[in-house]
Design brief:
This protein has 400 residues and is an alpha/beta fold. Helix content is 28%, strand content 30%. The strands form 4 sheets. The chain has a 7-stranded mixed sheet with strand order 16-15-14-17-18-20-19, sandwiched between helices. The chain has a 6-stranded mixed sheet with strand order 2-6-5-4-1-3.
Length: 400
């Protein structure tokens, strides 16, 4: 344990006082004592009041990531084990644990650490220097807790290759932790089979956060003609197919994703009704409109159009355009499922953007439901960064 202490400026620290997890560099008055980046420091208010322990990294704008609020609760292996066990207990209470996110960073009070479980394989993403040093302990405690419930993990793969690591002064890296294994893992979600490529797939290999949203859309697709935009490896398209859609077209700009989607369709014996196309969605939608194509259900699951506040204005244009184009392809009485996975595209702004798109497309929307990310990606209300996925299902209404 370091003997260093971070002293906040007067009037700063409002976020962590409300339960948040981050202390930014511009909130700090001074740092006393010796420390090394990635180590543990105390955090004090301007008047010396103890506020907690956290990991420090002066190379990052997020200079301290909070770990504990109580003086008598320092960062030890015992604390880490309690956090890991609490995260596992929460998943057992709320989700199907065959495939799920076991650790979701700040929302599980393990800031910067993400761990996904795909059947009997774990995929780790470590995004902060301080938590990275505790990675072996976290994995050991997690595998121990899983084993107590009869779950044996056959392999662990690390996908710490996100660019955000560079903000922490860390190199991007991916590779096996422990013995090598076949990195293409078969999973089942909502009754749909997938091959997840944990080595080469996007992020940790599969987007678990849309699990319940995929099921919700699937319920509307029986006997319907469906367009799934930004299909990635085909998850929404395959849910529609399994629900009995008459025809599904999945579109993505990545040929790697499309090939995986086609393999997943064959795995589920859906290749006769679920087809995929590798092309740019922004180019395709106007072409489909011009040809007079219409669909009963249109799904828009784009990548994040903005990863910073500075680019939100351009992102709004992208979301407005894609929703306007998508709406023009929906049959009267059909459904639009649309979402944003960008934290910086705030819920009110996203709703306003979709409303503007509907106005431009001369469509009226009746909201079926509003959803967020699956419960294994919990939203910690004191940590805004944990809330990122906004998901709407609308019926597109005409005159009766």
């Amino acid at each position: 344990m370091s003997n260093a202490a971070v002293l906040l400026k007067k009037g700063e620290g409002r976020t962590i006082k409300a339960g948040g997890m981050w202390v930014f560099d511009n909130e700090i008055d001074r740092i006393s004592g010796s420390f090394e980046n990635g180590g543990i420091v105390e955090v004090h208010d301007f008047d010396g009041y103890f506020m907690g322990y956290g990991f420090i990294n002066t190379k990052s704008k997020i200079t301290v990531r909070m770990m504990s609020r109580r003086k008598e609760n320092p960062v030890t292996e015992d604390l880490i084990e309690r956090r890991v066990r609490a995260a596992w207990k929460y998943r057992k209470q709320t989700v199907d644990t065959a495939c799920c996110r076991l650790v979701f960073g700040e929302a599980d009070f393990l800031p910067g650490m993400v761990i996904d479980k795909f059947s009997d394989v774990l995929v780790v993403e470590s995004l902060a220097l301080g938590i990275d040093r505790w990675k072996p302990v976290i994995l050991d405690k997690l595998k121990k807790a899983l084993a107590e419930d009869g779950i044996e993990i056959r392999g662990v793969y690390e996908r710490s290759d996100a660019k955000v690591r560079e903000n922490e002064g860390m190199e991007r890296w991916k590779g096996f932790i422990g013995e090598p294994f076949d990195t293409k893992v078969e999973i089942v979600e909502n009754g749909v089979k997938y091959i997840v490529d944990v080595e080469e797939g996007q992020k940790t290999g599969f987007f678990l956060d849309q699990k319940n949203n995929r099921a919700a859309v699937g319920r509307l697709c029986g006997g319907k003609k469906v367009l799934d935009c930004f299909t990635h490896t085909g998850s929404f398209a395959l849910n529609a197919g399994m629900a009995g859609a008459s025809f599904v077209l999945g579109v993505d700009a990545s040929m790697t994703g499309i090939r995986q989607a086609e393999e997943n369709a064959r795995l589920n014996h859906l290749e006769d009704r679920v087809k995929f196309m590798c092309t740019d969605v922004f180019d395709l939608l106007p072409e489909l409109e011009e040809k007079g194509e219409r669909f009963d259900v249109v799904i828009l699951d784009p990548p994040a159009f903005t990863k910073s506040r500075g680019s939100v204005k351009n992102a709004v244009k992208g979301y407005r355009e894609i929703n306007m184009r998508g709406l023009r392809l929906v049959e009267e009485g059909g459904f639009l499922a649309t979402c944003s996975c960008s934290h910086f595209m705030e819920p009110e702004l996203f709703a306003k953007t979709v409303k503007e798109a509907a106005k431009s497309a001369h469509k009226r929307l009746r909201q079926v439901e509003f959803r967020t990310q699956a419960p294994d990606h919990p939203i910690l209300w004191a940590a805004d960064e944990s809330y990122y996925l906004k998901f709407y299902i609308f019926q597109v209404c005409g005159e009766l």
